[in-house]
Amino acid sequence: MIDVLKTLGVKVRGTSEEFDSSTGGIWIAADSNTSSFDYYSERWVDTFGVDPLLSKVLDKRGWHFEWYDAGTMMVWPN
């Protein structure tokens, strides 16, 4: 999934294990990916501040985005 995200232009920081020892996820610095993630966005309300194209791509692959805080996004398998 990391390769898919990178292909879509997302700057991946590492794994969830590297972030806080949680297993199985991907860590993204959302504040370094402002064209894809916006915690305060009113235009992407249906996808909770995530570019709808990214949300759809991950959903089709059985993964989802989850905000950790306003600058940190995690990606988890469903």
Could you walk me through the main structural features you see in this protein, from its secondary elements to its overall organization?
The chain is α+β, with helices and mostly antiparallel strands. The chain has one domain. It has three helices and four strands. Strands 1-2-4-3 form a four-stranded antiparallel sheet. A hairpin with a 2-residue loop joins strand 3 and strand 4. The chain is globular, with a radius of gyration of 11 Å. The mean pLDDT is 95.
Largest sheet: 4 strands, antiparallel
What is the total tally of β strands? 4
Tell me the Rg in angstroms.
11 Å
> Order of helices and strands, N to C?
HEHEHEE
**Helical region count?**
3
**Helix- and strand-based class?**
alpha+beta
Describe the oligomeric state of these chains in a short phrase. single chain
- Helix percent band: 25-40%
Query: How large is the share of residues in beta strands?
Result: 25-35%
> How would you write the strand order of the largest sheet?
1-2-4-3
Average pLDDT level? 95
Q: Between the first and last Cα atoms, what is the distance in angstroms?
A: 13 Å
In short:
It is built from 3 helices and 4 strands; from the N terminus they run αβαβαββ. It has 78 residues and is of the alpha+beta class.
